[in-house]
Amino acid sequence: MKFSFQKWLKSLHYAISGISYAASQQNFSLMILLGIGVIILGGILKISATEWLILILTIGIVLSLEVLNTVWEKTLDFLSDDISENIGHIKDMVAGAVLIACLVAIIIGLIIFLPKLI
Length: 118
Fold this sequence. Notes:
Layout: H1 5-23, H2 26-45, H3 49-79, H4 85-117
Helix pairs in contact: 2-3, 2-4, 3-4
């Protein structure tokens, strides 16, 4: 398959559009602000390269899961107008996955930052 720069630019445009839509959602915006705060704190505390890698990866995972949560919610809303018990369970489980990632991110943040703050 031959590489097409035009197709790549179009794909990039769609991806940026998707991120822009995600940014309009309250939870994603909150996660962005928290991520920026963590990055600023990392700069102030001069964390190591390894700690930077761990933090950036963690932030990326949380943001990606938040996008996927929105995708699932929008898809399920599109497929069914009524809220069945099964659809509710699916939405709850996807939101739970985001919560797990956030809790792990908090633990990682505490492990990295707490010794530097005490």
